Protein backbone atom coordinates (compact mmCIF):
# COMPACT_ATOMS: atom_id res chain seq x y z
CA UNK A 1 0.00 0.00 0.00
CA UNK A 2 1.06 3.58 -0.68
CA UNK A 3 1.22 5.57 2.55
CA UNK A 4 0.07 9.17 2.01
CA UNK A 5 -0.48 12.46 3.80
CA UNK A 6 -2.98 15.02 2.53
CA UNK A 7 -2.71 18.78 2.98
CA UNK A 8 -5.48 21.24 2.04
CA UNK A 9 -6.89 24.21 3.92
CA UNK A 10 -10.40 23.38 2.66
CA UNK A 11 -11.96 20.59 4.74
CA UNK A 12 -14.42 19.59 2.03
CA UNK A 13 -11.60 19.20 -0.52
CA UNK A 14 -9.58 17.23 2.05
CA UNK A 15 -12.41 14.74 2.69
CA UNK A 16 -13.12 14.42 -1.03
CA UNK A 17 -9.49 13.61 -1.82
CA UNK A 18 -9.33 11.02 0.96
CA UNK A 19 -12.50 9.33 -0.26
CA UNK A 20 -11.26 9.17 -3.84
CA UNK A 21 -7.85 7.83 -2.81
CA UNK A 22 -9.39 5.05 -0.71
CA UNK A 23 -11.48 4.02 -3.72
CA UNK A 24 -8.30 3.28 -5.70
CA UNK A 25 -7.45 0.49 -3.30
CA UNK A 26 -3.77 1.43 -3.42
CA UNK A 27 -3.54 4.14 -0.76
CA UNK A 28 -3.52 4.30 3.01
CA UNK A 29 -3.99 7.84 4.35
CA UNK A 30 -1.76 8.21 7.42
CA UNK A 31 -2.27 11.92 8.00
CA UNK A 32 -4.58 14.80 7.05
CA UNK A 33 -3.67 18.44 7.61
CA UNK A 34 -5.29 21.81 6.96
CA UNK A 35 -2.09 23.85 7.17
CA UNK A 36 1.65 23.50 6.62
CA UNK A 37 2.60 24.29 10.21
CA UNK A 38 0.94 21.13 11.53
CA UNK A 39 2.62 19.06 8.82
CA UNK A 40 6.06 20.29 9.88
CA UNK A 41 5.30 19.42 13.51
CA UNK A 42 4.08 15.90 12.78
CA UNK A 43 5.82 14.66 9.64
CA UNK A 44 8.91 13.34 11.47
CA UNK A 45 6.60 11.01 13.41
CA UNK A 46 4.93 9.67 10.26
CA UNK A 47 6.04 7.09 7.73
CA UNK A 48 4.70 8.15 4.34
CA UNK A 49 5.62 7.70 0.68
CA UNK A 50 3.75 10.60 -0.88
CA UNK A 51 2.38 14.01 0.07
CA UNK A 52 -0.69 15.38 -1.72
CA UNK A 53 -0.34 19.16 -1.38
CA UNK A 54 -2.73 21.96 -2.25
CA UNK A 55 -0.73 24.77 -3.87
CA UNK A 56 -2.77 27.78 -2.72
CA UNK A 57 -2.83 27.83 1.09
CA UNK A 58 -2.59 30.75 3.52
CA UNK A 59 0.81 31.19 5.16
CA UNK A 60 3.21 28.58 3.82
CA UNK A 61 2.12 27.50 0.33
CA UNK A 62 2.23 23.96 -1.01
CA UNK A 63 5.30 24.91 -3.05
CA UNK A 64 7.20 26.02 0.05
CA UNK A 65 6.03 23.00 2.03
CA UNK A 66 7.26 20.70 -0.75
CA UNK A 67 10.76 22.20 -0.41
CA UNK A 68 10.79 21.52 3.32
CA UNK A 69 9.49 17.96 2.95
CA UNK A 70 12.05 17.14 0.25
CA UNK A 71 14.83 18.69 2.32
CA UNK A 72 13.79 16.45 5.22
CA UNK A 73 13.34 13.32 3.06
CA UNK A 74 14.16 13.47 -0.65
CA UNK A 75 12.50 10.05 -1.17
CA UNK A 76 9.00 11.41 -0.55
CA UNK A 77 6.95 11.85 -3.72
CA UNK A 78 5.04 15.10 -4.15
CA UNK A 79 1.66 15.43 -5.86
CA UNK A 80 0.36 18.98 -6.20
CA UNK A 81 -3.32 19.84 -6.34
CA UNK A 82 -4.57 23.16 -7.68
CA UNK A 83 -7.83 24.78 -8.66
CA UNK A 84 -5.98 27.11 -11.01
CA UNK A 85 -5.33 25.73 -14.46
CA UNK A 86 -2.46 28.19 -15.12
CA UNK A 87 -0.47 26.55 -12.30
CA UNK A 88 -1.04 23.01 -13.50
CA UNK A 89 1.81 22.63 -16.00
CA UNK A 90 4.18 24.60 -13.81
CA UNK A 91 3.33 22.47 -10.79
CA UNK A 92 4.07 19.35 -12.79
CA UNK A 93 7.55 20.68 -13.53
CA UNK A 94 8.43 21.04 -9.85
CA UNK A 95 9.74 18.33 -7.52
CA UNK A 96 6.54 16.38 -8.11
CA UNK A 97 5.54 13.09 -9.61
CA UNK A 98 2.19 14.48 -10.75
CA UNK A 99 -0.34 17.30 -10.44
CA UNK A 100 -4.10 17.16 -10.02
CA UNK A 101 -6.55 19.76 -11.21
CA UNK A 102 -9.52 20.27 -8.91
CA UNK A 103 -12.15 18.88 -8.73
CA UNK A 104 -10.15 15.66 -8.52
CA UNK A 105 -11.69 12.77 -10.42
CA UNK A 106 -11.27 9.09 -9.55
CA UNK A 107 -10.05 8.16 -13.04
CA UNK A 108 -7.27 10.73 -12.78
CA UNK A 109 -6.29 9.48 -9.32
CA UNK A 110 -6.06 5.93 -10.65
CA UNK A 111 -3.33 7.04 -13.05
CA UNK A 112 -1.50 8.98 -10.36
CA UNK A 113 -1.47 6.19 -7.80
CA UNK A 114 -0.44 3.64 -10.45
CA UNK A 115 2.51 5.88 -11.36
CA UNK A 116 3.53 6.20 -7.70
CA UNK A 117 3.29 2.44 -7.23
CA UNK A 118 5.53 1.84 -10.24
CA UNK A 119 8.09 4.37 -8.99
CA UNK A 120 8.15 2.76 -5.54
CA UNK A 121 8.91 -0.61 -7.11
CA UNK A 122 11.72 0.89 -9.21
CA UNK A 123 13.15 2.68 -6.18
CA UNK A 124 13.12 -0.48 -4.06
CA UNK A 125 14.98 -2.40 -6.76
CA UNK A 126 17.57 0.38 -7.16
CA UNK A 127 18.34 0.35 -3.44
CA UNK A 128 19.89 -3.07 -3.94
CA UNK A 129 22.36 -1.67 -6.48
CA UNK A 130 25.79 -0.21 -5.68
CA UNK A 131 25.45 3.48 -4.67
CA UNK A 132 26.48 6.00 -7.32
CA UNK A 133 30.01 7.29 -6.92
CA UNK A 134 30.45 11.05 -6.73
CA UNK A 135 32.42 11.87 -9.85
CA UNK A 136 34.41 14.92 -10.72
CA UNK A 137 32.95 18.22 -11.80
CA UNK A 138 35.09 20.88 -13.44
CA UNK A 139 33.61 24.34 -13.00
CA UNK A 140 35.16 27.14 -15.05
CA UNK A 141 34.24 30.73 -14.23
CA UNK A 142 36.74 32.84 -16.15
CA UNK A 143 35.27 34.38 -19.31
CA UNK A 144 32.38 31.90 -19.74
CA UNK A 145 30.67 29.92 -16.98
CA UNK A 146 30.99 26.25 -17.94
CA UNK A 147 30.50 22.99 -16.08
CA UNK A 148 32.04 19.69 -17.19
CA UNK A 149 31.24 16.26 -15.77
CA UNK A 150 34.15 13.88 -16.30
CA UNK A 151 35.28 16.09 -19.19
CA UNK A 152 31.87 16.28 -20.88
CA UNK A 153 29.89 19.56 -20.90
CA UNK A 154 26.79 19.43 -18.72
CA UNK A 155 23.51 19.80 -20.63
CA UNK A 156 21.22 22.35 -19.01
CA UNK A 157 17.44 22.08 -19.20
CA UNK A 158 17.18 25.86 -19.62
CA UNK A 159 19.54 28.84 -19.53
CA UNK A 160 17.89 29.92 -16.28
CA UNK A 161 18.81 26.62 -14.62
CA UNK A 162 22.43 27.23 -15.61
CA UNK A 163 22.27 30.77 -14.23
CA UNK A 164 20.72 29.51 -11.00
CA UNK A 165 23.58 27.06 -10.52
CA UNK A 166 26.12 29.78 -11.34
CA UNK A 167 24.58 32.03 -8.68
CA UNK A 168 24.60 29.19 -6.15
CA UNK A 169 28.21 28.41 -6.97
CA UNK A 170 29.21 32.03 -6.40
CA UNK A 171 27.69 31.65 -2.91
CA UNK A 172 28.89 28.08 -2.32
CA UNK A 173 28.31 26.90 1.29
CA UNK A 174 26.42 30.09 2.12
CA UNK A 175 22.65 30.32 2.57
CA UNK A 176 20.68 32.44 0.09
CA UNK A 177 17.28 33.76 1.06
CA UNK A 178 14.60 32.67 -1.38
CA UNK A 179 13.31 36.18 -2.06
CA UNK A 180 16.86 37.31 -2.78
CA UNK A 181 17.07 34.63 -5.48
CA UNK A 182 13.79 35.80 -6.96
CA UNK A 183 14.77 39.46 -6.87
CA UNK A 184 18.16 38.75 -8.45
CA UNK A 185 17.27 36.22 -11.14
CA UNK A 186 13.68 37.25 -11.94
CA UNK A 187 13.70 41.03 -11.27
CA UNK A 188 11.05 41.90 -13.86
CA UNK A 189 8.64 39.02 -13.18
CA UNK A 190 5.54 39.20 -10.96
CA UNK A 191 6.42 37.77 -7.54
CA UNK A 192 4.00 34.83 -7.59
CA UNK A 193 4.98 33.86 -11.12
CA UNK A 194 8.68 34.31 -10.30
CA UNK A 195 8.22 32.04 -7.29
CA UNK A 196 6.81 29.31 -9.54
CA UNK A 197 9.69 29.78 -11.99
CA UNK A 198 12.23 29.53 -9.16
CA UNK A 199 10.70 26.27 -7.96
CA UNK A 200 10.65 24.94 -11.52
CA UNK A 201 14.32 25.80 -12.11
CA UNK A 202 15.20 24.42 -8.67
CA UNK A 203 13.52 21.14 -9.50
CA UNK A 204 15.47 20.78 -12.74
CA UNK A 205 18.73 21.70 -11.01
CA UNK A 206 18.23 19.23 -8.16
CA UNK A 207 17.44 16.45 -10.61
CA UNK A 208 20.51 17.28 -12.69
CA UNK A 209 22.80 17.27 -9.65
CA UNK A 210 21.27 13.99 -8.56
CA UNK A 211 22.06 12.49 -11.99
CA UNK A 212 25.66 13.72 -11.63
CA UNK A 213 26.02 11.91 -8.31
CA UNK A 214 25.55 14.97 -6.08
CA UNK A 215 22.29 14.10 -4.35
CA UNK A 216 20.97 16.52 -1.74
CA UNK A 217 23.59 19.12 -2.73
CA UNK A 218 20.95 21.85 -2.34
CA UNK A 219 19.16 22.13 0.99
CA UNK A 220 16.33 24.41 2.10
CA UNK A 221 15.93 25.71 5.64
CA UNK A 222 14.30 28.77 7.23
CA UNK A 223 13.40 30.21 3.86
CA UNK A 224 16.93 29.91 2.46
CA UNK A 225 18.76 27.59 0.07
CA UNK A 226 22.35 26.37 0.42
CA UNK A 227 24.56 24.61 -2.13
CA UNK A 228 27.28 22.29 -0.86
CA UNK A 229 29.49 20.37 -3.28
CA UNK A 230 32.24 17.80 -3.04
CA UNK A 231 34.46 16.34 -5.74
CA UNK A 232 34.92 19.35 -7.99
CA UNK A 233 37.70 21.50 -9.41
CA UNK A 234 37.34 25.17 -10.23
CA UNK A 235 39.61 27.81 -11.73
CA UNK A 236 38.09 30.52 -9.55
CA UNK A 237 38.61 28.55 -6.31
CA UNK A 238 42.24 27.88 -7.19
CA UNK A 239 42.73 31.55 -8.03
CA UNK A 240 41.10 32.83 -4.84
CA UNK A 241 43.07 30.40 -2.68
CA UNK A 242 46.33 31.68 -4.18
CA UNK A 243 45.40 35.37 -3.99
CA UNK A 244 44.29 34.95 -0.38
CA UNK A 245 47.19 32.91 0.97
CA UNK A 246 50.21 34.01 -1.03
CA UNK A 247 51.34 37.46 0.08
CA UNK A 248 54.99 37.10 -0.91
CA UNK A 249 56.33 35.48 -4.07
CA UNK A 250 59.17 33.04 -3.64
CA UNK A 251 60.77 30.42 -5.84
CA UNK A 252 58.54 27.85 -4.09
CA UNK A 253 55.17 29.38 -5.00
CA UNK A 254 56.15 31.16 -8.22
CA UNK A 255 55.04 28.35 -10.52
CA UNK A 256 51.63 28.05 -8.85
CA UNK A 257 50.97 31.79 -9.07
CA UNK A 258 51.96 31.91 -12.74
CA UNK A 259 49.69 28.93 -13.42
CA UNK A 260 46.55 30.53 -11.95
CA UNK A 261 47.28 33.77 -13.82
CA UNK A 262 47.50 31.82 -17.09
CA UNK A 263 44.01 30.42 -16.40
CA UNK A 264 42.61 33.95 -16.35
CA UNK A 265 41.48 34.26 -19.96
CA UNK A 266 38.65 36.69 -19.28
CA UNK A 267 36.80 38.34 -16.44
CA UNK A 268 34.65 36.35 -14.03
CA UNK A 269 31.63 34.99 -16.00
CA UNK A 270 32.26 37.79 -18.50
CA UNK A 271 30.58 36.22 -21.53
CA UNK A 272 27.63 34.85 -19.53
CA UNK A 273 26.36 38.42 -19.10
CA UNK A 274 25.09 37.96 -15.54
CA UNK A 275 24.57 41.42 -14.06
CA UNK A 276 24.75 40.03 -10.51
CA UNK A 277 28.32 38.80 -11.18
CA UNK A 278 29.67 42.29 -11.94
CA UNK A 279 30.81 43.14 -8.40
CA UNK A 280 32.50 39.77 -8.02
CA UNK A 281 34.21 40.21 -11.39
CA UNK A 282 35.62 43.56 -10.30
CA UNK A 283 36.94 42.06 -7.06
CA UNK A 284 38.62 39.19 -8.93
CA UNK A 285 40.15 41.55 -11.48
CA UNK A 286 41.65 43.65 -8.67
CA UNK A 287 43.14 40.53 -7.09
CA UNK A 288 44.66 39.65 -10.46
CA UNK A 289 46.16 43.12 -10.77
CA UNK A 290 47.67 42.74 -7.30
CA UNK A 291 49.22 39.39 -8.26
CA UNK A 292 50.61 40.84 -11.48
CA UNK A 293 52.20 43.72 -9.57
CA UNK A 294 53.75 41.20 -7.17
CA UNK A 295 55.21 39.32 -10.14
CA UNK A 296 56.58 42.53 -11.65
CA UNK A 297 58.27 43.39 -8.35
CA UNK A 298 59.58 39.84 -7.95
CA UNK A 299 61.19 39.70 -11.38
CA UNK A 300 62.56 43.21 -10.91
CA UNK A 301 64.36 41.97 -7.81
CA UNK A 302 65.56 38.94 -9.77
CA UNK A 303 66.73 41.24 -12.59
CA UNK A 304 64.77 39.09 -15.02
CA UNK A 305 64.04 41.73 -17.66
CA UNK A 306 62.05 39.47 -20.00
CA UNK A 307 59.58 38.23 -17.36
CA UNK A 308 59.22 41.66 -15.79
CA UNK A 309 58.28 43.11 -19.19
CA UNK A 310 55.84 40.28 -19.83
CA UNK A 311 53.85 40.92 -16.66
CA UNK A 312 54.09 44.71 -16.96
CA UNK A 313 52.50 44.43 -20.40
CA UNK A 314 49.70 42.26 -18.95
CA UNK A 315 49.23 44.74 -16.11
CA UNK A 316 48.82 47.67 -18.51
CA UNK A 317 46.57 45.68 -20.87
CA UNK A 318 44.21 44.73 -18.03
CA UNK A 319 44.28 48.17 -16.42
CA UNK A 320 44.72 50.63 -19.30
CA UNK A 321 43.67 53.65 -17.21
CA UNK A 322 46.35 53.02 -14.59
CA UNK A 323 49.00 55.68 -14.98
CA UNK A 324 51.10 54.01 -12.29
CA UNK A 325 51.33 50.82 -14.36
CA UNK A 326 51.96 52.83 -17.51
CA UNK A 327 54.78 54.76 -15.87
CA UNK A 328 56.39 51.50 -14.74
CA UNK A 329 56.31 50.16 -18.29
CA UNK A 330 57.71 53.41 -19.71
CA UNK A 331 60.53 53.39 -17.15
CA UNK A 332 61.23 49.73 -17.93
CA UNK A 333 61.66 50.49 -21.65
CA UNK A 334 63.97 53.39 -20.84
CA UNK A 335 66.04 51.14 -18.58
CA UNK A 336 66.57 48.59 -21.36
CA UNK A 337 67.38 51.31 -23.88
CA UNK A 338 64.16 51.28 -25.86
CA UNK A 339 62.98 54.89 -25.66
CA UNK A 340 60.82 54.44 -28.77
CA UNK A 341 58.60 51.92 -27.00
CA UNK A 342 58.37 54.18 -23.95
CA UNK A 343 57.14 57.03 -26.17
CA UNK A 344 54.63 54.71 -27.85
CA UNK A 345 53.23 53.62 -24.47
CA UNK A 346 52.72 57.27 -23.48
CA UNK A 347 50.84 58.13 -26.67
CA UNK A 348 48.72 55.02 -26.25
CA UNK A 349 47.52 55.93 -22.77
CA UNK A 350 47.02 59.55 -23.82
CA UNK A 351 44.79 58.44 -26.66
CA UNK A 352 42.79 56.09 -24.40
CA UNK A 353 42.25 58.72 -21.71
CA UNK A 354 41.12 61.36 -24.20
CA UNK A 355 38.80 59.01 -26.12
CA UNK A 356 37.24 57.19 -23.16
CA UNK A 357 37.37 59.71 -20.33
CA UNK A 358 37.94 63.07 -21.99
CA UNK A 359 41.03 63.82 -19.88
CA UNK A 360 44.78 64.17 -20.38
CA UNK A 361 47.42 62.06 -18.65
CA UNK A 362 48.47 63.03 -15.13
CA UNK A 363 51.20 65.65 -14.79
CA UNK A 364 53.65 63.05 -13.44
CA UNK A 365 53.15 60.90 -16.54
CA UNK A 366 53.62 63.89 -18.83
CA UNK A 367 56.79 64.91 -16.99
CA UNK A 368 58.18 61.38 -17.39
CA UNK A 369 57.38 61.57 -21.11
CA UNK A 370 59.14 64.96 -21.43
CA UNK A 371 62.21 63.64 -19.63
CA UNK A 372 62.36 60.69 -22.04
CA UNK A 373 62.21 63.02 -25.04
CA UNK A 374 65.01 65.16 -23.56
CA UNK A 375 67.12 62.01 -23.13
TrEMBL record:
Under SMART domains, the record lists: BTAD, REC
**InterPro entries of this UniProt entry?**
AfsR-DnrI-RedD_regulator (IPR051677), BTAD (IPR005158), CheY-like_superfamily (IPR011006), Sig_transdc_resp-reg_C-effctor (IPR016032), Sig_transdc_resp-reg_receiver (IPR001789), TPR-like_helical_dom_sf (IPR011990), WH-like_DNA-bd_sf (IPR036388)
Q: Which residues form the Response regulatory domain?
A: 3-117
Does the keyword field hold Transcription? Answer: yes
On this chain, the residues bearing 4-aspartylphosphate are 54
Question: What are the transmembrane regions?
Answer: none
Q: Does the keyword DNA-binding apply?
A: yes
Record keywords: DNA-binding, Phosphoprotein, Transcription, Transcription regulation, Two-component regulatory system
PANTHER family referenced in this protein's UniProt entry, alphabetically: TRANSCRIPTIONAL REGULATOR REDD-RELATED
Q: What name does this protein carry?
A: Response regulator
Source organism per UniProt: Sporosarcina oncorhynchi
Lineage of origin = Bacteria, Bacillati, Bacillota, Bacilli, Bacillales
